[in-house]
Structure to design on (345 residues):
């Protein structure tokens, strides 16, 4: 009997240990994956990140388990088109009961980067057909990446990063109203450009680009208790100073540039103490029970890692300041053990 008792206790200890492990996690979620984004639908998180040459979707109950999640390549671009190469920052959205994926792509020439969209009418994005709906362009039709769509007071909007003219040198944040999920029907409106020293770190040393590029990119819509924000990435992703800035909506019309207040300090930046560099290009999600707000972002674990494949997806819970603004905290180290997002009881 003593042997049976010992064996039973051992099994219980192993099971409890396994359960404890599933309730906690450590960053990063994957070894590599820039520009992470997730959509929660019908009990599952649908996750994606930049893969350059295709669109892949992951499906999981818990984003902490991404490494073991089911995945599927849902679209590979045809050769020889204006959107065959350099597929960046895909985002999957559910709009009026249909699935849409927005992404930036070009023909191998960065000057031709534009936004594109696919549609899937199936309830399950792993099923059905992904139909290419075309380019999503504003007036004027200029270089554009990092599109994010959202509804505000029943109207659909897109925010993105773009050039003012036809040549590289600075990336700004623009907004426009949409007629439908694949058509912008207003002129683009500039709501943010790099103005502070902390968002102007972008020296380059190559034969293709200008010697310095100022960057505002990766805009993400965020709403909390009726307050509207846009969190964006600042500085060149090739620098360790890549970080997040905040725009706060203070007016009545989203298309009014004066209605957007830019905060004068970054709200999320590198932590040398925690060995987290260039944290940025984020998205936000709710815990399964809807009680917690989380940030999903990419970062490097070493200085000088730049914009390549060393960027890895990470997540952590955020809080809210007394004035209603988001408090993203400090990017945690790889050694930090975190509790998974709060689950439905």
């Amino acid at each position: 009997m003593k042997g049976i008792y010992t064996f039973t206790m051992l099994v219980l200890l192993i099971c409890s240990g396994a359960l404890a492990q599933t309730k906690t996690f450590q960053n990063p979620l994957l070894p590599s994956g820039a520009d992470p984004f997730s959509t929660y639908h019908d009990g599952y998180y649908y996750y994606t990140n930049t893969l350059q040459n295709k669109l892949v979707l992951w499906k999981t109950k818990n984003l902490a388990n991404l490494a073991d999640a089911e995945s599927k390549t849902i679209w590979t671009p045809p050769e020889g088109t204006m959107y065959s190469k350099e597929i960046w920052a895909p985002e999957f959205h559910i709009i009026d009961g249909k699935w849409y994926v927005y992404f930036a792509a070009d023909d191998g020439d960065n000057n031709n980067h534009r936004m594109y969209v696919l549609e899937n009418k199936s309830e399950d994005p792993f099923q059905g057909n992904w139909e290419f709906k075309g380019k999503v362009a504003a007036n004027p039709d200029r270089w554009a990446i990092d599109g994010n769509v959202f509804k505000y007071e029943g109207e659909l909007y897109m925010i993105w990063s773009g050039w003012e003219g036809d040549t590289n040198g600075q990336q700004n944040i623009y907004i426009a109203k949409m007629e439908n999920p694949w058509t912008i029907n207003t002129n683009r409106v500039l709501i943010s450009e790099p103005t502070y020293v902390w968002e102007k770190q972008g020296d380059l040393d190559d034969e293709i680009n200008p010697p310095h590029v100022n960057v505002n990119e990766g805009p993400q819509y965020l709403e909390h208790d009726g307050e509207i924000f846009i969190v964006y990435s600042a500085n060149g992703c090739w620098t360790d100073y890549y970080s997040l800035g905040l725009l706060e909506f203070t007016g009545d019309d989203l298309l009014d540039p004066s209605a957007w207040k830019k905060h004068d300090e970054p709200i999320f930046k590198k932590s040398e103490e925690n060995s987290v560099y260039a944290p940025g290009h984020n998205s936000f999600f709710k815990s399964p029970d809807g009680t917690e707000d989380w940030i999903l972002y990419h970062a490097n674990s070493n200085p000088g890692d730049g914009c390549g494949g060393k960027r890895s997806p990470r997540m952590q819970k955020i809080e809210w300041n007394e004035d209603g603004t988001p408090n993203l905290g400090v990017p945690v180290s790889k050694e930090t053990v975190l509790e998974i997002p709060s689950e439905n009881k």
User: Anything to note?
Assistant: The radius of gyration is 21 Å. Helices lie at 2-22. The CA atoms of residues 58 and 71 lie 4 Å apart.
